[in-house]
Amino acid sequence: MAHFLKCIKLLLILISLLTTFASVRSISANSLAHADTAENNPFIEIPIPTPSCYPLDIKVDSQGLVWIMEFKTNKIARYDPGKNTFSEFDIPTEKSESSYLDLGPSGKIWFTEQDGNQIGSFDPATSEFQEFRVPRPNAIPTSILVDKKGIVWFIEWNTNTLSSFDPGSQQFEGFPIPTKMSRPSGLAEDKDGNIWFIELIGNKLAKFSPKRKSFEEYPLPADSCSPYGTVIDSNNRVWYSNMRDRKMVSFDPVSKQFENFDLVPNKGIKGIAIDHEHGAIWMGLPTDNKLIQFDIHTGKVAEYEIPTGKSRPMGLAVDSNSNVWFLEVGANQLGKLVYERFRTFSKKSNMKIQFKPADKLKFSRD
Question: 3-state class of 339 per DSSP?
């Protein structure tokens, strides 16, 4: 498990809200963007109530509630932006090493337990948990996705298996990935119901068809490129990051063609999410202390430096209003990049935007 945790570099700290403030200076090699009033500062940050909780994953539900996996404290946290309150719920299995979560169509929160060798669900309506043991021992379940039909998909890191769980029948089914020791991650569902993921060691992009129960694997154009992803846009194109060459890469399932786009210089990506409405892919740069926005229509990139230094942004989620929520591992905060405050910045060329720190927004517990 220790070896696995080193390999995956898990995500950190709950994100949140900051009071806005004044005076913003932006600098870019290609353009200059100005935000000279407090209202134009798009960042809000809020400390997570539990210290050093080591948050790993984040999702926003249809009501705008933010759900966070607290790895170190073995809890699922909920942040209510309307009430500015945090609530925490203890996962029944102690030291489960729960890592990733996703939202089901019924409103339940589904998650994986690495050390517990289980998947679990949490019902917000009743505050009740259910846990289901994975049939294969020491599977190390990691990435998780709930598809449009409510079927739960997850990766078994240690067995090189893509598995499904039907909440209705409570039955598991495992599908061995063709490439041995592929080290899969980053599940995404396309409009046809296919499940896509990246293979870190296999250096491939893979598709699984639940209808045919079969895999297709596509070797990546760059060897040993440290791929990271995966997200799918409204045109069904699959996107991932080539971290070695600092590229954003798209794959067209129809033509079977890859296309490369330059990203800004960076020291590694953690956390990726897509804003379907505006065609923007968001990524966290932990070492660079930035969020970057990649425009899939123009190929342009905008950099947003996070006000809190050494915040180490990781997990990302985009809500229904195109706000970007993110976890700050180094600062143990929940962050929000407010769409209405950054949407007016020019996207004609690459740009870098920098903001001064502000006072932290105070919160209360339920």
Answer: helix
**Among residues 78, 272, 99, which one has the least CA distance to residue 188?**
272
- Asked if the model's pLDDT at residue 43 lies above 70, the reply is yes
Cα angle 160, 3, 116 (rounded to 5 degrees) comes to 65
Tell me how crowded residue 287 is: count the other CB atoms within 10 A of its CB: 12
Any idea what DSSP says for residue 22? Answer: S
User: Distance between CA 158 and CA 140 in Å, rounded?
Assistant: 6
Would you place residue 41 in the very low, low, confident or very high pLDDT band (cuts 50, 70, 90)?
A: confident
Q: Specify the pTM.
A: 0.85
Domain range summary for the chain, segments of one domain joined by +: 2-365
Structure confidence at residue 102 (pLDDT): 98
> How confident is the model over 315-340, as pLDDT tens digits?
999 999 999 999 999 999 999 999 98
Candidates 323, 357, 331; CA nearest to 66 is 323
Pairwise CA distance, residues 198 & 181, whole Å: 13
The domain made up of 2-365 is a member of CATH 4.10.240.10: no
